[in-house]
Amino acid sequence: MKKQLNNLLMIAGTGRNVGKTMLACKLIGQFSHQDVVGIKVSPHFHQQAEGQKILVQRPDFMIIEETSASTSKDSSRMLQAGASKVYYIQTHDRIIGEPFRIILSMLPENQPVICESGAMLEYARPALFFLVYKKGGVQTKPGLERIDYDPNQKIAFDGEGFDFDFDKIGFEDHAWVLKK
Questions:
Q1: How many domains is the chain partitioned into structurally?
Q2: Mind listing the pLDDT tens digit for each residue in 141-152?
Q3: Is residue 172 predicted with pLDDT exceeding 80?
């Protein structure tokens, strides 16, 4: 059974370069006054840059706290947008729950979290789940049929902006909400 996390907003995309990180950064900027935490998950293992803060390193995953807000990496962009902290997880999808549990144990229970990951949807059920797609492109993601719930919102990205009213999102009583 998936753990319900009301302080979690999850962003997945239908592919690469569909605006996932741009959406995450826009939301982080909008809620930065509430000490929002950003999490970026990647199934690809990369060499880490000098000065990054590696918190946990195991054969199947690595948890890094992003410390630089001056690069073009997605996790750095989240810091630039105003996240109080950003964690970058490199892991294989099959064990994604373990590094995520570790990060959650480091955070206050009700702190707002915005996570960019599709694979995490199989481990945790967020209060809000947004699926981003390129306008005019595919609106589904392979693997989502394994998830037992639908996105709260499908959001089209046209290369510059989104077809979504950001005033509809709130973080109230320690939970992400989508206002009517």
A1: 1
A2: 767 677 777 899
A3: yes
Assigned token pair, 63: 């948890």
Question: What pLDDT is attached to residue 19?
Answer: 92
The whole-number average pLDDT for the span 144-166 is 88
Q: Report if residue 176 sits inside a domain.
A: no
> pTM here?
0.92
Residue 142 and residue 132 in contact, taking contact as beta carbons nearer than 8 Å: no
Asked whether residue 178 is domain-assigned, the answer is no
* Residue 168 covered by a domain: no
Q: Please name the residues in contact with 160: beta carbons below 8 A apart, sequence gap of 6 or more.
A: none
The residue with greater pLDDT, 144 or 13, is 13
Confidence band, pLDDT 50/70/90 cuts, at residue 133? very high
Q: Give residue 118's domain range.
A: 3-138+148-159
Q: What does the chain look like in DSSP terms, one character per residue?
A: -PEEEEEEEEEEESSTTSSHHHHHHHHHHHHGGGT-EEEEEESS--PPPTT-EEEEE-SSEEEEE---SSSSSHHHHHHHHT-SEEEEEEE-GGGTHHHHHHHHHHS-TT--EEEE-SGGGGTEEEEEEEEEEETTS----TTGGGSSS--SEEEEE-SS-BSS-GGGEEEETTEEEE--
**64 occurs within a structural domain:** yes
